[in-house]
Amino acid sequence: MPIRKLLIANRGEIAVRIIRAAREQGIATVQVHSAADADSLAVKLADEAIEIGPAPAAKSYLNIDALLAAARQSGADAVHPGYGFLAENATFADRVAAAGLTFVGPSGDTIRLMGDKVAARRVAARAGVPTVPGSDGLIADLEAAKDVVAEIGFPVMIKAAAGGGGRGIRIAQDVSEFERLFPQASAEAQAAFGDGGLYVEKVIERARHVEVQILGDGERALHCFERECSLQRRRQKVWEEAPSAALSPETRSALCKSAVKLAASVNYSGAGTLEYLYDEATGAFYFIEMNTRIQVEHPVTEWVTGIDLVGEMLRIAGGRPLRLRQDQVTLRGHALEVRLNAEDPAKDFLPGPGTVSDLRLPGGPGVRFDSLLYPGYSIPPFYDSLLGKLIVWGEDRGHAISRLKSALAELEIAGLATTAPLFAALVEEEDIKEGNVHTRWLEHWLETNAAKLA
Ligand code: ADP
Ligand code: ADP
Ligand code: MG
After folding, report:
1. Helix, coil or strand: residue 144
2. Which residue's C-alpha comes closest to atom 6 of ligand 1?
3. Strand 284-291 to strand 269-279: parallel, antiparallel, or no bridges (unpaired)?
4. pLDDT tens-digit profile of 50-87?
5. 195 C-alpha vs ligand 1 centroid, how far in Å?
6. Is there a single domain that holds both residue 170 and residue 294?
7. Which member of 143, 190, 263, 303 has the lowest number of beta carbons within 10 Å of its beta carbon?
């Protein structure tokens, strides 16, 4: 059944993005919010707003009972979870469905399967998709872990099965470090994710992060090509692009086909992303995890394919089959996205919310700005620091970088520190211009280039 009224169980720039997609399809919007978000842009833009609890996310955006009560009260027939918060919470998806509402995303069972990183590795292996060499399943204890580690060789990565957002990951260079980190990692995963389960992967050195966007309707899946997100700090993406500068047409085709096979093997429904590491030295790619939701960096894919991914999510959830055939999804030009966080790059990325005293947005051809900002807005200190994303399109990668540079020169967010100066410095770097990067590149650069950010 097509969605008529959508409850947005999220906040920030992604809530704004979802409202826009819904409105375009004539779907009414209900924006939930915490007491701290009463004057957010999403609340202003939505048709209706409902307060669901106090500022702490545990009492509002993570409060399933309050969200379902808001859906009932407003007469919404569907719920979009956005990213973060409850977006990959299988219980939430189940409870939305049990309440007779449409969850805009895959079923609780699919989230359970693919959201557990160990289970997802097994699904990938079964579909014939290469995974990073590592443990077959969860590692029971330190003794069992040592056997696996001896087999794959150091350095190794200890990862939480329930991890996400770059958290729950440790690197051990040798046995003694491993013995020290393993119990710590387990305790931390238990505290952070309510699940202490760990697994181990070989560290792929100088890897590039490439990921494939897919769409499925439960019957059929297709890919919308790849994004590259190798520029990371603390394993969190800060700059993303489409397509990847590193892939040959043959590798691109093999990678994207593997993702479709994997998604089809679980009858995937909705938008999803399969993340991989690409080893440039050998040309091999390895599946690392699946995100069963819309991702922060989806706009770069939208720009190079012309597909409105959030719009397609709403159509699929409304029961419509995929509108496109694979051969109708084509690539045009190059898109870049940079994440603007309320953090000061000159002070080791110290988070600092504040009030937007003045705002000048960039414009012109090939420039898109998705954000939660408006002049006079006070950023609440309770949530993550993403303010928005500056996205540019160019005929090719070089053109996109020139446009990013011009757009950054136009942008002014007064009243608080943002990560914009980091990107103004990065666009001048030869490695960046040449696309000569890997997942540790930015950390190395930050160690030696602090002066460029002062
Ligand atoms: P993407 O995978 O879309 O690039 P991120 O990894 O930055 O995006 O995650 C998007 C948001 O979701 C961030 O706010 C991040 O902190 C949060 N997030 C992702 N996975 C989890 C998780 N398992 N637990 C808690 N928060 C998460
Ligand atoms: P999360 O769920 O937190 O997003 P991922 O498994 O997607 O965790 O990994 C996050 C990042 O950590 C990757 O983008 C990459 O930079 C790094 N990483 C993960 N696994 C490996 C590995 N086996 N070798 C090298 N780097 C890795
Ligand atoms: Mg990831």
Report:
1. helix
2. 165
3. antiparallel
4. 999 999 999 999 999 999 999 999 999 999 999 999 99
5. 17
6. no
7. 143
* Protein residues with CB under 6 Å of any ligand 1 atom: 83-84, 164-165, 236-237, 291, 295-297, 384
> Which of 202, 227, 244 finishes a domain?
202
pTM of the model: 0.97
Q: Both tokens of residue 287? A: 């599946």
Q: Does some domain include residue 123?
A: no
Q: Of the candidates 104, 119, 142, which is a domain's last residue?
A: 104
Residue that the structure tokens 């990847």 belong to: 244
Q: Which of 95, 293, 339, 403 is catalytic?
A: 293
Q: What residues flank ion ligand 3 with Cβ within 5 A? A: 275
pLDDT in tens, 289-315: 999 999 999 999 999 999 999 999 999
Q: Does the C-beta of 155 come closer than 6 Å to ligand 2?
A: no
pLDDT at 454: 81
Residue 355 CA to ligand 2 center (angstroms) comes to 34
What separation in Å is there between the alpha carbon of 405 and the centre of ligand 2?
29
Type of residue found at 405: K
Query: Which whole number is the average pLDDT over 282-291?
Result: 97
What is the average pLDDT score of the chain? 97
Task: Give the position, in ligand 2's atom list, of the atom nearest the Cα of 204.
Answer: 24
Query: Which residue of 83, 86, 387 sits with most ligand 1 atoms within 8 Å of its CB, as the best mutation to test the pocket?
Result: 83
Tell me the sheet residues that pair with 348.
Answer: none
Neighbour-count burial for 413-443, b at 16+ CB within 10 Å, e otherwise: bebbbbbbbbbbbbbeeeebeebebbbebbe
| 293 catalytic residue (yes or no) | yes
Span 140-180, pLDDT tens digits: 888 888 889 989 999 999 999 999 888 889 999 999 999 99
**38: containing domain:** 5-104
The residue contributing the CA closest to ligand 1 atom 24 is: 164
Contact assessment for residue 101 and residue 29, using Cβ atoms and an 8 Å cutoff: no
Give the chain's length: 454
Mean pLDDT across 127-136: 95
- Which helix (H) or strand (E) segment holds residue 159: the answer is strand 156-164
Q: Which residue has the tokens 């093999």?
A: 254
Same domain, 227 and 183: no
